[in-house]
Amino acid sequence: MTALKQPELISIADYLEAERYSPVKYEYVDGHVYAMTGTSKVHNLIVGNLAGILRNHLRGGPCQVYTSDIKVQAGTRIYYPDVVVACPPSDDPYVETNPFLIIEVLSDSTERIDREEKRLAYQSIAALQEYVLVSQEHREIQVSRRSDEGWIEGRYGASSQLMLVSVGLECLVEQVYEGV
User: Fold this and answer.
1) What's the CATH code of the domain at 51?
2) What confidence score (pLDDT) does residue 8 get?
3) pLDDT for 24-43, tens place per residue?
């Protein structure tokens, strides 16, 4: 009987170098790379709305808002979140290592990973204050907020006022879903 060949692991440095020139985006998980899927129009509208709301709110301050082409590193994992806020941003032009706020818009193909794997990885980042999950299917937003007691969960529905304490933002949930 022959042994199965184990896949070769790629180093973070090699991944980052290759990713700079790749026409396809890949996420990095403990030495393995995974191609990313495309998004829907609804997903794109929600991301655009969130980025616009945050940019307008944070204009003129030390924070930067990035969308899905900037990587976030959490230990030995590197992901492309939908929206990232860094206060202040790190010096690396491609990777954010100290995000203050991360937002993921849930898709059927990524929801489990966003709720479990990414949540745990992101929450290990010392600078992270809030991790936000936005549903495409329902007007519902889940916010995980760091506190002295650990991570506290909150949910905001269609008629709610969304509060992102990390950046001092309050807006109507309906604004996040404008045009959807």
Assistant:
1) 3.90.1570.10
2) 86
3) 999 999 999 999 988 999 99
Omega within 30 of 0 (cis) for the link into 88: yes
Q: Exposed, middle or buried: residue 141 (CB in 10 Å: 0-12, 13-18, 19+)?
A: buried
Number of domains, the chain? 1
Q: Say if CB 104 and CB 134 are below 8 A apart.
A: yes
26 beta partners: 35
Residue range of the domain that includes 128: 39-176
Q: How far apart are CA 51 and CA 167, in angstroms?
A: 13
Tokens of 171: 């807006």
**Residue 99: partners with Cβ closer than 8 Å, 6 or more residues away:** 72, 81, 84, 85, 86, 122, 125, 127, 128
Q: Which residues contact 38 (CB under 8 A, 6 or more apart)?
A: none
Pairing relation of β-strands 141-147 and 150-156? Answer: antiparallel
With respect to residue 15, please indicate whether it lies within any of the assigned structural domains: no
